[in-house]
Amino acid sequence: MKPEILALVPIYAPTLAELEREFTVHKLWTAPDPEALMKRVAGSVRVAVTTGLAGYTRRQVEALPKLELIACFGNPHGMAAEDKAAAKARGVFVTNTPDSITTTVADLGMALVLAVMRRIAEGDRFVRAGKWPAGPLAPGRDIGGKTLGIVGLGRIGRAIAQRAESFGMKVIWHGPRAKPDVSWPFHVDLREMARHSDCLLAICPLTPETHGLIDARVLDALGPDGFLVNVARGPVVDQAALIAALKDKRIAGAALDVFWDEPQVPAELLVMENVVLTPHVGSTVKEIREERGRKLLANVRAHFAGKPVLTPVA
C-alpha cells in the first residue's frame, strides 16, 4: 500500500503528478468538506505538502496525529510563531526547497518599471481593442536619465539597481541603515527619497516596521509624475492610500506583483489603465519550479525511506 500524503494547497503540477505516481495523495483544496477529509485521513497521513507562501497552521498540525513531515515547495516565511511552534512541539520535521530567486525577481522588477513607465501593458490592450486606427497611444516616459528609488537593498534590490543602471537610470535607496559597501546614495528619510524619485520600487521584506511603510505621505512625495512598483509584499504599501492616489492622479501609475489579500485584487485597480498587474510571479519561471520540485520529492522520498531529509528548516 502506498504511503499517504495530504497536499494542503496546489503545487507545481508536474511535481504533484510525480507525487501521485509514488504515493496516495489527498488534495485538501478539492475536497467538498476539507474538515471531513482531514478527519478521514488523520490516522494514515504521515506527510503534508504545502507551499512556502501558504505554509501550514497549528490547527492542521494538531488535526493530523500521525504527521511526521511537512514538505514545503518553496521557503516558508511570514508564518505565525504559534504555527511553527506547533510543528516543533510535535517533533514534526519541516523542509523547504532553498534556491536563488535573485535574478528572476530582479528581472521582473525591472520589467515592471519598463511596463508602467513605457505603458507597455496599456499599449497591448490598446491594440487588441482596435483603437490604434483611430489615433496613436499617448506617449509613455523615457527611463534613461530618470531616478529609481529602491526601498530595500538586499540581494534582489542590488540586482535591480544594477539592471536600472544598465538602462541609464540613476539609483538611490532607502533602508533601515546605510551599508558601507554601497556606492548608491542612501536616504534615511523615505519621503525625502520619494521626492527625488521618478519611480519608487519596493523590494523590502514584510516586517512590523515595513507594514504600510509606503503610505499616503510617501505617495504624495512621489508626486503626479512619479510611478510606484511593488515586488515586495502587498502590505508594504498602504493599498487604500495607493488606490486613492491613483484615482486622484496624485501619482502617474503603478505596477504591482503583490497584493494585500492574494489572489483577490481590488476592483478599483482592475479598471485603471495606468496600473500594471501581475499575479505574484516574481519567482515563477519553469527552471525554479522544476528545481523546487526535485528538492521536495527528494525530501519526501528520503523521509519515507527512513533517511535524513535533505533540506530541513532550522
Rg, Å, rounded: 22 Å
Helix/strand order: EHEHEHEHEHHEHEHEHEHEHEH
Q: Kindly give the count of domains.
A: 2
Q: Residue-averaged pLDDT, rounded?
A: 96
- How many distinct beta strands? 11
Could you tell me the strand content as a percent range?
15-25%
Name the helicity range. 25-40%
SSE arrangement:
Blueprint: E1 4-7, H1 13-22, E2 24-27, H2 34-41, E3 45-51, H3 58-63, E4 69-73, H4 81-90, E5 93-95, H5 102-117, H6 120-128, E6 147-151, H7 155-166, E7 170-174, H8 190-195, E8 199-202, H9 216-222, E9 227-230, H10 239-247, E10 253-256, H11 267-270, E11 275-277, H12 286-304
Parallel strand pairs: 1-2, 1-3, 3-4, 4-5, 6-7, 6-8, 8-9, 9-10, 10-11
Report on this structure:
The protein has 314 residues and is an alpha/beta fold. It has two domains: 4-99 and 287-304, NAD(P)-binding Rossmann-like Domain (Rossmann fold); 102-277, 3-Layer(aba) Sandwich (Rossmann fold), CATH 3.40.50.720. It is 37% helix and 15% strand. The chain has a six-stranded parallel beta sheet. A five-stranded parallel beta sheet has the order 2-1-3-4-5, with helices on one face. α3 links the parallel β3 (45-51) and β4. The longest helix has 19 residues, at 286-304. The chain is elongated, with a radius of gyration of 22 Å.
Features:
single chain; 314 residues; alpha/beta; Rossmann fold; 6-stranded parallel β-sheet; 5-stranded parallel β-sheet
Task: Give a brief outline of the structure.
The protein contains twelve helices and eleven strands.
